[in-house]
Automatic annotation (TrEMBL):
Family membership: Belongs to the polyprenol kinase family.
GO cellular component, as recorded: endoplasmic reticulum membrane
Listed name of the protein: dolichol kinase
Transmembrane segments: 12-41, 61-80, 92-116, 153-171, 211-231, 243-262, 282-303, 324-339, 345-365, 386-406, 426-446, 458-478, 490-517
Record's bilayer topology term: Multi-pass membrane protein
GO molecular function, one term: dolichol kinase activity
EC number: 2.7.1.108
PANTHER family, per database record: DOLICHOL KINASE, TRANSMEMBRANE PROTEIN 15-RELATED
Length: 522
């Protein structure tokens, strides 16, 4: 039977789904509600499989399956994008939103079918619910999608199936089923979009910075798969293997990734990037400022490790110490959001590529820095880093960056949406940078009243809501492009629901919370 935190988490997700569809009720709303109901029931099966060790792959054990909250993210994002682009009259991206929603529903349904299929004895009631939800979704897709869009949805599903079999086998205990759905579903969609745009590059659609994101994500994933296969046949910790790692990285980067990007943007990628980064004086100032913050973050890592050496009893950094990095990330993103969002977009892509590349060096013990990175980062591990990869810092970067990357610029003629939608790029800053940070600090130091079944406190949640409202007021003061148009009640409801979700979820909050806040704002 589901415990109280899971029931509370599910209730919050249901409320968010109903809030969204109370505004944009259409045929896709029936699909979303049906998907949410069947995901809630299938969550029973996944949790039981995880407890009994009967899942096909090894998932993260310190959390529940998270199937319901993860299943609703991509469909709700697609529906919100469809409505925004429909109101702006951009038909191409309206159809794109429908494809995103349909893909998210089908991928989530596939994960549910797996859980039902491997549960013994076969749960008849859950099978009926899954069948009904699948019938509603497929019927709606049949009457909503063109043949080419159906093929695109099936392509993403096929990529997701193969990526799941490969990455979940290679990376045991790194994800819950819900986190795997979000991460692998996102990678599958990015890979499909890159293939599609590479084949149709003559049409000239898309911004160079969008292509930069697609190529960077696919490039680092392919790089990781290549070296994972390679180092199953040789020891990655030797100097010869390390030299081969650096040489092959250069070959793949300059021989595959750069030409691929050149084909998409029709210019030299390195020259374009340098010209883009130093185009204005404001960008130069921001880059210098961000370099200083990056050096400060490195300084904290070295200082905490030196402190650990002198205090042999203390083996792990405290929660408050880890939140220093949240403050640094907020100080990084807010000026970028106010003064130059395109530069922030590209800088976040570069930072993601660097983070993942450094994780490869740590994971494979690549000389000369692999062992040093293992020692330095081990101080900041928590229960969510139970697998071979350390992903919490990458999730933090993703949580802050996804609202910037997923902001529908083409459907916002003046560069910003109206009402609460104007806060969409700030979703990561509010949910993770402010809300999650303040909740952790005040909850761990001053909190006494705990939410039922969790370690989170009532005081931490209330303080987080209050801090985010203050942050919204400061954004209104310093960012002249934000105009909320009296949508304050909706903003308060959005912030409150996401803060409650933070209190009850056992998923990676750095990844989940910004996406739900973005959905509510859109």
């Amino acid at each position: 039977m589901l415990n109280k935190p899971v029931l509370a988490e599910s209730l919050i997700v249901f409320i968010i789904v109903l809030f969204v569809h109370a505004v944009v009720w259409d045929r896709y709303s029936w699909c979303a509600v049906a998907l949410a109901i069947q995901a809630f029931y299938v969550q029973f099966k996944w949790d039981r499989l995880l407890q009994l060790g009967g899942a096909v792959f090894q998932f993260r054990t310190a959390a529940n399956s998270g199937l319901l909250p993860a299943s609703m993210v991509i469909p709700l994002l697609g529906i919100a994008m469809k409505e925004r682009c429909k109101s702006a009259g951009i038909v191409y991206f309206e159809r794109f939103g429908i494809v995103v929603a349909s893909t998210g529903m089908l991928v989530a349904l596939f994960l549910s079918v797996i859980a039902v299929g491997i549960t013994k004895p076969v749960p008849s009631n859950t099978c009926v619910l899954t069948g009904v939800a699948g019938s509603i979704i497929i019927y709606t897709m049949k009457h909503s999608l063109t043949v080419s869009e159906v093929i695109e949805v099936l392509e993403v599903l096929l990529i997701f199936v193969y990526l799941s079999m490969i990455l979940l086998y290679l990376l045991p205990r790194c994800f819950t089923p819900g986190e795997a759905l979000l991460v692998l579903g996102g990678i599958s969609f990015v890979l499909n979009q890159l293939i599609k745009r590479s084949l149709n590059v003559i049409e000239g659609r898309g911004d160079p910075i969008d292509f930069f994101l697609l190529v960077a994500v696919v490039g680092v994933v392919l790089l990781g798969l290549f070296f994972t296969v390679l180092f199953t046949f040789m020891d990655s910790g030797t100097w010869i293997s390390s030299m081969f790692f650096h040489m092959m990285t250069a070959v793949l980067g300059l021989g595959v990734i750069m030409p691929w990007l050149y084909r998409l943007i029709q210019r030299n990628p390195l020259f374009w990037l340098l010209q883009f980064l130093f185009q204005t004086q404001t960008r130069v100032y921001l880059l210098v400022y961000w370099t200083f913050l990056a050096a400060s973050a490195c300084g904290i890592v070295f200082y905490q490790n030196a402190k650990r050496s002198s205090e042999s009893k203390k083996h792990q950094a405290s929660t408050i110490t880890r939140k220093y990095f949240h403050f640094i990330v907020v100080a990084t993103y807010v000026p970028g959001l106010i003064y130059d969002r395109q530069l922030l977009y590209v800088a976040a892509v570069l930072c993601l590529a660097v983070f993942i590349f450094l994780e490869y060096i740590r994971y494979f013990r690549i000389k000369p820095f692999g062992q040093t990175l293992r020692h330095l980062l081990s101080l900041f591990l928590d229960e969510r880093d139970s697998g071979p990869l350390i992903l919490t810092h990458i999730y933090l970067l993703l949580g802050m960056s996804l609202p910037v990357w997923l902001f529908p610029r083409s459907c916002a003629p003046k560069g910003t949406l109206s009402g609460a939608g104007a806060l969409v790029p700030y979703s990561g800053v509010l949910a993770v940078g402010v809300g999650d940070t303040i909740a952790s600090i005040f909850g761990s130091t001053m909190g006494e009243i705990k939410w039922p079944g969790t370690k989170k406190t009532f005081e931490g949640t209330m303080t987080a809501i209050f801090a985010q409202i203050i942050a919204v007021a400061l954004i209104l003061i310093f960012d002249s492009s934000v105009n909320l148009n009296s949508s304050y009640a909706w903003i308060l409801a959005s912030v409150s629901l996401v803060s409650l979700l933070e209190a009850y979820t056992t998923q990676i909050d750095n990844l989940l919370l910004p996406l739900y806040l973005q959905i509510m704002f859109m």
